[in-house]
Amino acid sequence: MFRFYFRIVFLFFLFISCVKYEQVGDKTSIFQKSEGKQEEDRYGILKKKAKEALEFCTENKYSTDFCVLVDMKIPSGKNRMFVWDLKKDTLSYQALCAHGMGRGSTQETPVFSNENGSYCTSLGKYRLGERAPSKWGIKIHYKMYGLEKSNNNAYKRIVVLHSYDPVPDEEIYPEHLPLGWSLGCPVTSNEMMTYVDGLLKKQKKPVLLWIYY
Asked: I need a surface site. Which of 34, 51, 61, 184 has the fewest CB within 10 A?
């Protein structure tokens, strides 16, 4: 009888541990059905963007291993930066991402601009460039070169991919990330930046980062 109750207790704690891991430790579980139709729709858009990204990367001789997608329609308190495995056609990592503070942007709603001094996020496709030292986060950033009219001033504006210590590793919604953490750069968590840095250091071809709304 004692062994029976011991096994029941053991299985219960094992189940709790698995549930906790799925909720907290699994960075690839996204838009669970319990979160509602809106989240499912955003996941559909993510899948569509990933398909378009693969076509772009193939045509332009970019890396077809992975790309980075940022959906600015998703609240900043939710994961909206995604590393997409283009070979497996699946999400490999996700994290929070701050948007620019300029031109009347709020925590809830970003305003987009390509103008120098606007302190705004710019929409469009980017080529991730050189790896360089940074003052922020894990002390590494990557240059960003805008490929469209909507973001072709990115390099001049010193818009770069970097992390920032206060950005949480987990979602905080219904709270939002504070304004001021980004002057136009896609600013993410140290955990995400470490992951992306590890991938980028292995790449010989250009890698696509795409910010859309």
From this structure: 34
Distance from C-alpha of 157 to C-alpha of 155, rounded to nearest angstrom: 5
Residues of the chain with pLDDT under 50: 1-25, 32-34
Q: Where are the alpha helices (DSSP H) in the chain?
A: 2-20, 37-59, 190-200
203 in Cβ contact with 148 (< 8 Å): no
pLDDT tens profile 25-82: 355 555 544 356 777 799 999 999 999 999 999 999 999 999 999 999 999 999 999 9
Q: How many CB atoms lie within 10 A of CB 119?
A: 20
Structure tokens, 38: 């809106």
The tokens for 192 are 């995400």
In whole angstroms, what is the distance from residue 94 CA to residue 50 CA?
A: 14
Q: Position of tokens 């503070």?
A: 101
Question: Rounded to whole angstroms, what are the CA distances from 13 to 3, 20, 24, 25, 53?
Answer: 15, 10, 16, 17, 42
Alpha-carbon distance of 210 to 124, in angstroms, equals: 6
